[in-house]
Amino acid sequence: MDLLCSINSPEDLKKLGYNELEQLSNEVRQFLVDNVSKTGGHLASNLGVVELSLALHRVFDSPRDKIVWDVGHQSYVHKIITGRKDHFCSLRQLDGMSGFPKTNESCHDCFNTGHSSTSISAALGMARARDIKNEVHSVISIIGDGALTGGMAFEALNDAGRASTDITVILNDNEMSISKNVGGLSKYLSKVRTEPFYFKVKEDIDLILNKIPAIGKSAARALDLAKGTIKYIITPGIIFEELGFKYLGPIDGHNIHELNKVLARSQKIKGPIVIHICTMKGKGYTFAEANPHSYHGVSPFEIETGEAINNKSLTFSKVFGDELVSLAQKDENIVAVTAAMPDGTGLNKFAGMFKNRFFDVGIAEQHAVTMGAGLAKSGMKPVIAIYSSFMQRAYDQIWHDVCLQNLHVVLAIDRAGIVGEDGETHQGIYDLSFLRHMPNMTIMAPSDYAEFKEMLKYSLFEHKGPIAVRYPKGNGRSNTPGNEEKIKLGRGSLLSRGKDLTIISAGTMLDTAVKVSDVLYRSGIKADLINSRFIKPYDEKLIVKSVMKTGLLITLEDNVKKGGFGSGILEMISEYGLFPQTKIFGFPDELVTHGSKEELFKKYRLDTNSIVKSVINHINNNRRIGGQIV
Ligand SMILES: Cc1ncc(C[n+]2csc(CCOP(=O)(O)OP(=O)(O)O)c2C)c(N)n1
Question: Given ligand 1 and candidates 143, 298, 363, 422, which is best to mutate, with the most ligand atoms within 8 Å of its CB?
């Protein structure tokens, strides 16, 4: 790592020749594999942008020039170059370096990202501000072909293309989203990449067309039309040109010399530019090259074998995928929709078995939901599997297109609750708050795998209307003793009885609730323990009866407290004139950072010990001040 040791800022790159830059690329790849194999993180995407990141920082002048990474999962090399290589051992760990660009981490991170397809909009805003303030600097958005499938990217291209503002969009085309990229644009790009005809003629088109000799008036008009059509057909990147961009490319994104040349050239061009570069996801690490989708996001792994160190046990996503296949075998109206996450959501098995009933729509959550509404309107039973934090994108589509028409759409909300290492942009702790007030919406949260399967069955075979099932990242319990009762709309399950306290938990927080209840029992505090099952509607009868008996209530949820599960219970019981001593356990209304799930539950005092302590304090304080508890 001789060269890499000497790189502490972008300035250091500018001193290197091309041979040294090539050697540095190799060292950076080695560094990435060494580090990510220990910490986990986004590997394949970063291996693909090594030369691009070096060239960007060599040609441009960050932080004066603004470099905006779309999604930001591929910003590791940028972080290495901008003085953070010594922090890589803390990548994605509590109090360590984030896996995404963070403006508070470095002046070189000019915009926070995590969700896809935002970079062109953000860059255009920065470019327009620069123009208003009469400043002089470049603004560059780097967007993958996957992120380009997101609607926001099209909206931004449409706007930027007609602006005279200087802005550079670098399209990093590796033909992959997390899985193989999908859609018409992706097909078009791969044609541009692979048909050598396009590559050759780009420079010569005008020359050739202009050589056609002059002729009579009407023939000339016909010829002009023909010229336009020929140019249209054979110009690579014509889509971007028609939108108003200058198109440069396609460029080999691993040829650092070429990259330098084209980036330097782009600085002299006025107006919006698209530079189309072609890269290989996973480049330089054999296993990632062969299987880029498996190495998109990885947990710690053995470098020699490529195998994950902690072999995955069963997860909620896997249970979901398997159960949906089995339900789809019984009902041919069941169809599945993903927004570019067939692997992560566990839908790949379904995709393989029911090709014509599976739709990967690209990174297009809004479209996924409204397309699902269309499917439901026409008699299908769509199951739309999207991660909680990405479902935020589709808020209005759920409300306007699904709920207002009371359509039977099943939202399978994966990664609900704390996700851990991906940090604040990915924590799925808002869905209960934004779904709870939607008209006609029913919300369920399973506490274990057995209950999850029953909920899926219920949502597809017994329910009518919009329904969401939210479940967490990773694994859970297979079942919970005493929780076997059949799923009925708005019915919770009472797991133990007591006179002192009512504990109501949402979803997998039941695990903690059971432990809390056991510890309190040993301290002489006996609780009614209710697994809510439904977040909307609540089991009013069960909850009201219990609260009237105990007068002391705690609620547990892996959602923000504001507008969430517990606050909904308070709204509901207040309608009955009940105002018990209450403590809501959930996440505060602040950014919940990265770290392991366990660490974060501790940090936010949602682990068993913290909850027990807090409940006992609460009881003692109320006793001391004479509060009426029992
Ligand atoms: C709104 C949203 N949906 C889904 C994701 C999950 N996601 C992260 S990266 C990615 C694929 C991005 O592909 P591309 O832009 O081509 O980058 P590459 O990893 O191929 O370099 C997806 C789907 C996300 N970050 N944001």
Answer: 363
CA distances to 84, 97, 278, 510 from 89, rounded to whole Å, are 10, 9, 30, 34
Q: How many whole angstroms from its chain centre is CA 217?
A: 57
Q: Is 71 in the pocket of ligand 1 (CB under 6 A)?
A: yes
Task: Give catalytic status of residue 613 as yes or no.
Answer: no
Q: What is the CATH code for 316-470?
A: 3.40.50.970
**With a 6 A CB cut-off, is 531 part of the ligand 1 pocket?**
no
Q: How far apart are CA 298 and CA 292, in angstroms?
A: 11
Tell which one of 116, 181, 186 to mutate to probe ligand 1, the residue whose CB is within 8 A of the most ligand atoms: 116
Question: For ligand 1, is residue 334 a contact (CB within 6 Å)?
Answer: no
The C-alpha atoms of residue 543 and residue 570 are separated, in whole angstroms, by 11
Could you report the average pLDDT of every consecutive run of 10 residues in the chain (630 residues)? 93 96 98 98 98 98 98 98 97 98 98 98 98 98 98 98 95 94 89 65 57 63 65 76 95 97 96 97 98 96 95 91 98 98 97 98 98 98 98 98 98 98 98 97 98 98 98 96 94 97 98 98 96 98 98 97 98 97 96 97 98 92 50
- The CATH number of the domain covering residues in 2-290: 3.40.50.970
Instruction: Give the start-to-end residue ranges of the domains of the chain.
Output: 2-290, 316-470, 494-624
